[in-house]
Amino acid sequence: MIEARNPRAEAAAMVPPGVTGLVLEPSLPVNHDPDWFADDPTAPAGATTVTPIPGEGRTWTDLAAVDPTVADYAREHWLGNLADLEPIPEAHTETRRALHQLAFFALAPKRFSATGKLGLRYTHRGFGTPFFGDDEQVRVEAGTLVRQRAGSIDAIVPKTVGEAAAFLGLDYQTDWFTGFHDPLAPIDPEERISIDPAAADAIGAWFGFSTHALERARRTPDARDVTRVQLWPEHFDPAFEMGDQDEGRRASYGASPGDDSHPAPYLYVAAWGELDRADPFWNAPAFNGALLSYDDLLSAPDQMEAAVQFFASAHERLTT
Fold first, then answer.
1. Closest by Cα among 254, 139, 120, 234 to 177
2. Which of 237, 236, 201 is nearest to 85 (CA)?
3. pLDDT digits over 48-70, tens only?
4. For 120, which DSSP code?
5. What are the structural domain ranges in the chain?
6. Contact at 8 Å (CB) between 252 and 232?
7. Whole-model pTM above 0.90?
């Protein structure tokens, strides 16, 4: 059953009294910072914290080692005691395309209409907006479109993108934001879309896994000009940037759920400057950078460690 959520409050119920539980998801209270209109969920909040990020104090994995209830919670929310990624369901591509349409033509415009911001984030079993307005959040949870307002819940499994936009109180528009370099091509808003629940869950797991890896990567020691992890609706991928642009060392670090040229999910680092293509690490055929395939992650002895090391290797090559 879909329920109203406040991830930080949920985490507070799982940790000892007086301890702050840091999470990967957007949480209440509504953030009115004009630069972001969003919280930075894993930003350290002092010494008495439980965090997903190793090296910043007590971790969810530490807590999970002594409390099975915490272990289940941490695993389910990609905070610690992590599960392994599973093989991709058969309906992955069709579901990914449908969810991408919802992200670009329904969820992102809803946030943009309220805050002028369009970035999305990982949310439990899917993706969604930070909280805005009257404690409002819109999200996709295991393929169900959810609108949470002041603690109340409305939810549908949309049959079309037009239906999704109307459910969120929007007039469907293909040009709701004009600043994209490569906006998503629209489908007919009345064309039926197909969302397989198992495939939607797998995509949600991918976003949780990759957000965990990216949040760890963005805390690389001595990193320069680091941005926040956001799920960009035009590409439908969580990503952040770091590195000195003037020195040609800046790159985007991200995680695609797949695209037309590479249908399976993959991690990537896209450099902004020139690369030494003689180095086999820079193996991406379709962009200026490197990728780590889903198959490589599945076969890794430690999937999260493989993801973190991939990002670390890219950063080291770009900055030395």
1. 234
2. 201
3. 899 999 988 899 999 999 999 99
4. B
5. 7-76, 92-167, 197-319
6. no
7. yes
